[in-house]
Design a protein that fits this description.
heterodimer, A: about 220 residues, mainly alpha, MetI-like fold, 11 helices, about 0% strand, B: about 350 residues, alpha+beta, Rossmann fold, OB fold (Dihydrolipoamide Acetyltransferase, E2P), 2 domains, 8 helices, 21 strands, globular
Amino acid sequence: MPEIDWGPLWLTMQLAGVTVIVLLLVGTPIAWWLAWTRSRFRTLVEAIVALPIVLPPTVLGFYLLTALGPHGLIGGIWKDLTGSALSFTFSGLVIASTFYSLPFVVQPLHGAFEAVGKKPLEAAWSLGASKLDAFFTVASPMAVRGYLSAIVLGFAHTLGEFGVVLMVGGNIPGVTKVLSIAIYDHVEVLEYTQAHFLSAVLLIFSFLVLTIVYTVNRRLPIHVS
Amino acid sequence: MNQLDARFSIDYPGFRFDVAFTAPLEGTTAVFGSSGSGKTTLLRCIAGLTRVPSGFLQFDQAVWQDDARGIFLPVEQRRVGVVFQEARLFPHLTVTQNLKYGMKRSDPSLRRIDFAHVSELLELESLFERRVSGLSGGEQQRVAIGRALLTSPQLLLMDEPLASLDQQRKKEILPFIQRLNRELRIPVLYVSHDLQEILPLADHMILLKEGKVAATGPIQEVFARLDLPGLVESNAVGAILETRIMEHEPQFGLTRVEFSGQSLFLPQQALPPGAPLRVQILSRDVSLVVGDPPATSSVLNTLEATIVEVRKSPGDEYAVEVKLDVGCPLLAMITRKSFSQLRLRPGQKVHASFKAVALS
């Protein structure tokens, strides 16, 4: 049994978990807006949200690195507020991952909200529910499959990111050294056993999560047509 | 009397919606018209689900919309119950949870409608623990009606609530809707293109045509107008009479009802003596007799009538429409030959014989 460093695995789970929470908070309003707006900026916003799907991670990583740096757009504000830098930190990684995985959360939610449609909402409003009330008690529960897809895809996509993390986070053990980078490191120094082990953990974990999700999804009593 | 005062206008491409009317806030007001006449738009404007840019809507003393003053009360604050064409139940909730969704959000001091009463009225008890997806179309619509009622609305808006149901289910639900108004005393605005739904229900009528109000008034008067050719096939409806059941004659299979002091006979009804019954007379079923009616006739129903107005039928060049007064308006459709033989003129006293049909 070789010596395995579990630090990167734990860090990866933390990063993916925190990122998914941030993504839900940021992605839900965007998806809601996209589902109902008639604004002509709609297609523009849709394109921006979808950019990370087609953009090479190094390109996105490069721009994020610039933005998150102490003189960058986001990093500068962060530094004024907290006094510390963003690049090569865990917080910086969360922000970068949020951009990177945004389409994987916004798109399922957008689709789910559209599938729910205006009709149940109108019924809820006519029954005295405020717009926010109707969102939480009718639209969200009816869009539960969309939320499930969004959480799984957002989590899994963050779990596997490599290029962006390398550009923005570097490779600092315990701070920014996540699983995919740890595997890369092991391969670089020909520690194939460790690489195999960590890869297998990631593979089995991903497989299990997806199986559970598809099973739960099939059994959910909500049928929105 | 309290009333609803509405003025809405908007230009859609190829369609101008321009509606203004007042309607009493009691009984059932039918909004009637063919599809595309703007019925649903009107209902959505009143509910506050659609906002036309220049509108005015006053419910009794409360202004719900006045764009001249920038007033628009959002739907959730109007306390209107809306029953849509499709039931629109919430699939993630049970029947009971659906029923209580609006009730829980209503002001307790304004609740006048009791959960047990509505459950009994709409026969909902057996459905309580069921999942919405397991209900039939008729059951879903009953739950939807109950859900809207339990908010104790000031006004109930129904948008073709029976349109998505087959004939059998329609017959199932219609009696429930008839009971609503009698028992709960909530003013109802009922949108439909189906005369057979409206005739038994409506007290008042707003007739829409191509986005405009073509006629409005008590239903008996609207149907007795001769100047609305083709709009509602009004020549088919001769009169709508509000009668009261007097007695049953089971040996003849008949029920005797009273209308303004005179007796009429109908096929036997299930209702008890004393119950009100709305009766329809078709204009083609009316025949006129000048002078005394023959002492022996197979026709059971004869009323004294005064001729009000005579005109040629727009739909049939060999027919004449005669508007009579029998204590309420009655339209008769007779042949031109009969008309010239009888030499009818306004003011003349005649006898009108007809077959009466119960509406329910």
